[in-house]
Structures are given as structure tokens and as C-alpha cells.
Specification:
Helix content is 37%, strand content 22%. By secondary structure, the chain is an alpha/beta fold. The strands form seven sheets. A seven-stranded mixed β-sheet has the order 7-6-5-2-1-8-20. The protein has a five-stranded parallel β-sheet with strand order 10-17-11-12-13. It has a three-stranded antiparallel β-sheet with strand order 14-15-16. Helix 3 (67-75) runs parallel beside helix 12 (386-410), helix 7 runs antiparallel to helix 8 (218-224) and helix 12 (386-410) packs across helix 13. The longest helix is centred in the first third of the chain and has 29 residues, at 8-36. The model has no long low-confidence stretch (mean pLDDT 89).
Length: 505
């Protein structure tokens, strides 16, 4: 049939249609993202309080830059408060992807966001970040003492800083737990911070290069190629899975003379099964998948000591055994940080797992100290996860906004006493945790998901490759900035096309 010529008007109509569809899609994706991350109030809240300004805005000091702190800072109305963030780490770390940085699936710069970027928004003139570590808290004087944690002498000798506060938010998280096991801190790698992941990545590459040296003794090669993971929770399983993918997909091809058949990954845990927080069906699937991939599971086995090249364990039968290794990564739990334990003791609390808080996340026995994230022990008994910390941070930010606005509007002389603030807090709804589900990557492009079904005490229990893509999609949407998402996308593409980078830097 005859084809009609394309006129200029038709070209413009097609262009307008294409742009309209692309724009509508972009707006739809943005709306879904904002809804999924519970961020609509960032676009609808007032940037300045109504009425006359404060005589002096209340000072809020936030300790930490983790999930809880970052979520809190994003929500706090900086027109109501003078905010100072104190942390030795000047960035937020997206921990769900940390295991991937240990082998180069993603680069560490792709999953961090400078904390100053969160503070650089409308009304942020009174927001400040200080690179320091809090060493003491005085609840009676409402002050904290901090020490500068920079390298060298960039501040001209300034080493100790004292800050006063009207409200203190403790969001320091936790440190890795060693349970008093001798030699762990000296001879094992933790996986808590970016510097930990960088050390692991460099050490793994060093083990591979050293094992490849001509004339290397067979027993040394066998030890160097044994990678040990202690801890059967999500972090331990995901690291073992990422390491397996790296060794299988990349090392086997670029180290042709390396005895690949001698490479071993062993995962130890003191409990009878890994991933104890997941359903039994999913645990069985995971253990089967790990074994099919060649990962050796040593459950019901306790580590009693660690030396530079081997560790001592007790088998399930109580028999001592020495286990040689080239790399040992310790992800066996968390413990209270010293500053948190110091405050627990000062306040006379009996908890050894963190700060006891009430339903509003206010530390018990205080009027103006709050705790969120892993360092807080909530009446709800919530687990120390990023999901909980993020929700607590958002809740507290909104709580302080609502209470601060109400107090500001009702204060005749634009000032407010702690008692007035506390009475207003007591009228607010308490924190309610909404569990959105749990994911875990188990290697070979396989993942687990345990998601609430909407019916009480019932959950969807899923596994397989489709869940792996859902896992990536969910965590991709949770990345803090567009910059992070672009960089992670590029990293995933590079890994797929060129493989992981095995160079030592």
C-alpha cells in the first residue's frame, strides 16, 4: 500500500507524545519512590515556623551518621531547630550493599553519601557537622565532650570540644562483638565500616597473589586459599555468597595457574542453623544452596581463640580443632559502644545491650535525651536492623517537628521550658514499627525474601532468582541519593560486562 509522507506537524506530534510519555513515566517513578521511602513530608512541611521566630532556636545535637541519624536529619525541620551532627564518620553508609564492596561488585564510593549533603537544603543555615567522637555525656549540665578524629594536625591543635544541647539524640549504633574471644581483634577482619571492606578486599587479593607465587609451598597455598567466615546471620551469609561469586566468576578466569580446586570457603556459626531469623523452609533452602555452591557449613561450632594463621574451635562434640586460614572475616554480632555504656551507667540503667527508651524513644530517667537505632532498647523489642533504625529516625524527626511547632505556636514569649516540651511529647502517638519484610542474598543470583502478607502472623516465603532481582530493586530504591543510584547502576554494569576489579590499591 502507499505510505503517507511524514509531515512536520506529524513529527512534532510524535515528539510531543514521546516527551509526554517519558515525563509521565519519570513523575510516576518519582512518586512511587517517594511513597516507598515515606518522604512526602519533605515536600509538604513548612520550611519556617509560623508566627514570630524563636528567641533562640533549641539546639539538637545528633551523635552518629548511620541509618537512624541520617533518617532523622532528613526529617528535622531546620527552621525549628539548630542542628549539629557529631560523628567521626562524615558520611552515611548504605550497609545492605557493604558485602558487595569487599569483592568489587560495587565500589565503596557508590554507597556512601556525605552527611553535609543531607544538611545542604533549604533552611540549613543553622545545621552543622563536626568530625569528632563523643567521649563523655553530662546529662545534668546538658553538655557533651568530644575529641577531634581527623588525621594530622588540620585544626591547629584543637583536640577537645565541648558542646551544649537542649536535646541530645544518641544514634551511634553498635560495634562488632567479640564475646571475649582471644585474638579476634588482632587477627580477624570485621565488616562494619567502609575501611573494613577495603581491608578485606585488599587482603583477599593479596592471598590470591601470594598463593600464585612460583615455588610456593603446598601447605601455604592451601592455607592462603581458605577463606573463613564466622557468623551465620545475614551479613555472614551475604559476604560468603559475594565472595563465592567473585572466586567463581572472576578469579577462576584471571588466575589460570592458581589451583582453583583448593579454594575453600567455610562458614562457622555457634547455632545449629544459619539465618535463624528466617523461616525453617528458607533456612533449609539456603543451607542447601550454599552447600551446592561448595561453601562448607560448620554449625554448632564455637570459636575459642584466633591466631595469625589459624583459629581454635570446639566441634559440636566438644572436640578441640585447629583451623588454618588465609582470611578470617568476623561477623558474629554486635556490642554496645563505650559512650553508650557510659551513659547507661550514669543514668543508673541496668541494661547491657543499650539505652532503655520509652514509647517516644526518649531515654528513661531523662527529659531531653533520645536514642534511636541499634543503641536503643525499645519497649517493642525491635531487632537491631537498618529497617528499624530508619523508621525510628523518621519517627523522631517528625515527633520533634510536631512538638517543636506546637510548642513554638503556644509559647507567648517564644521560649519553652523542658517541662512544657515533655508534656507536649506525652500527648503524641508512640513509635509503631511496621515490618516491611527481610531479604538475604545467598549467592549464584539467588536470594530469599520473607514478606508480611497483610494477615497477622502470616508471611510470604520466597526464594530463587526472581527474588534476587526483587532484592536488588528494593535496595536500589532505598539508596539515599540519585548520585548513589547512578554510581551503583554503573558498577553493576561494569561488573556484568568486564568482571570485578582484582587490583590492589
Amino acid at each position: 500500500r502507499n505510505l503517507e509522507p511524514i509531515t512536520r506537524e506529524m513529527r512534532w506530534a510524535r515528539l510531543v507524545k514521546g516527551v509526554s510519555i517519558a515525563s509521565a513515566t519519570a513523575v510516576g517513578v518519582w512518586a512511587i519512590d517517594v511513597t516507598a521511602n515515606d518522604d512526602w513530608d519533605e515536600y509538604t512541611r513548612r520550611s519556617q515556623p509560623s508566627g514570630a521566630p524563636w528567641v533562640r532556636k533549641p539546639k539538637v545535637v545528633v551523635l552518629g551518621t548511620g541509618w537512624a541519624a541520617a533518617s532523622l536529619v532528613k526529617k528535622l525541620d531546620l527552621g525549628l531547630y539548630d542542628v549539629t551532627v557529631v560523628s567521626p564518620r562524615n558520611y552515611f553508609l548504605f550497609t545492605p550493599m557493604l558485602a558487595g564492596t569487599t569483592v568489587g561488585t560495587v565500589e565503596h564510593r557508590s554507597i556512601v553519601e556525605p552527611i553535609r549533603s543531607l544538611l545542604m537544603r533549604t533552611g540549613a543555615g543553622d545545621a552543622e557537622y563536626i568530625q569528632a567522637e563523643c567521649t563523655a555525656i553530662d546529662p545534668k549540665a546538658n553538655t557533651i565532650t568530644c575529641k577531634h578524629t581527623g588525621t594530622g594536625d588540620p585544626l591547629g591543635g584543637v583536640g577537645q570540644i565541648t558542646l551544649d544541647y537542649d536535646h541530645l539524640v544518641v544514634a551511634t549504633g553498635c560495634k562488632p562483638a567479640t564475646y571475649g574471644t582471644p585474638g579476634v581483634e588482632e587477627n580477624a577482619f570485621f565488616m562494619k565500616e567502609i575501611k573494613d571492606a577495603q581491608k578485606i578486599r585488599d587482603h583477599v587479593a593479596n592471598c590470591l597473589e601470594t598463593a600464585s607465587l612460583p615455588g610456593q609451598a603446598p601447605d601455604v597455598v592451601s592455607r592462603l586459599l581458605h577463606f573463613v567466615v564466622v557468623g551465620g546471620g545475614p551479613s555472614g551469609v551475604e559476604f560468603a555468597a559475594e565472595l563465592h561469586d567473585f572466586l567463581k566468576d572472576d578469579v577462576a578466569h584471571i588466575y589460570p595457574k592458581l589451583p582453583i580446586n583448593q579454594i575453600r570457603i567455610t562458614l562457622f556459626d555457634v547455632l545449629p542453623h544459619v539465618l535463624g531469623m528466617f523461616d525453617t523452609k528458607l533456612v533449609e533452602y539456603t543451607e542447601g544452596q550454599l552447600r551446592r555452591e561448595g561453601i562448607n557449613l560448620r554449625t554448632s561450632t564455637r570459636v575459642v581463640g584466633v591466631k595469625p594463621h589459624n583459629m581454635s574451635v570446639l566441634t559440636p562434640e566438644g572436640v578441640p580443632e585447629d583451623v588454618p586460614f588465609g582470611t578470617l572475616v568476623w561477623v558474629a554480632g554486635i556490642a554496645t559502644r563505650p559512650i553508650v555504656q557510659q551513659l547507661v551507667d550514669t543514668l543508673g540503667q541496668e541494661s547491657r545491650r543499650g539505652l532503655l527508651v520509652d514509647g517516644h524513644l526518649k531515654v528513661t530517667n531523662t527529659n531531653n535525651i533520645w536514642a534511636v537505632g541499634d543503641c536503643a532498647i525499645s519497649p517493642l523489642g525491635t531487632p537491631p536492623t537498618a529497617q528499624v533504625a530508619s523508621q525510628e529516625g523518621r519517627y523522631l524527626g517528625r515527633l520533634l517537628n510536631d512538638v517543636g511547632q506546637q510548642a513554638h505556636d503556644s509559647a507567648v514569649d517564644r521560649t519553652i521550658t523542658p517541662e512544657q516540651f515533655s508534656s507536649t511529647v506525652a500527648e503524641q502517638p508512640t513509635f509503631a514499627y511496621a515490618h516491611a519484610g527481610s531479604f538475604a542474598y545467598i549467592g549464584g543470583n539467588q536470594a530469599l525474601a520473607q514478606i508480611p502478607s497483610g494477615t497477622p502472623d502470616e508471611e510470604y516465603k520466597l526464594e530463587g532468582q526472581a527474588v534476587y532481582f526483587a532484592w536488588r530493586t528494593v535496595y536500589f530504591s532505598k539508596l539515599l541519593s540519585t548520585r548513589n543510584r547512578m554510581m551503583v547502576s554503573i558498577d553493576w554494569l561494569k561488573t556484568r560486562v568486564f568482571g570485578r576489579d582484582t587490583s590492589r590499591t
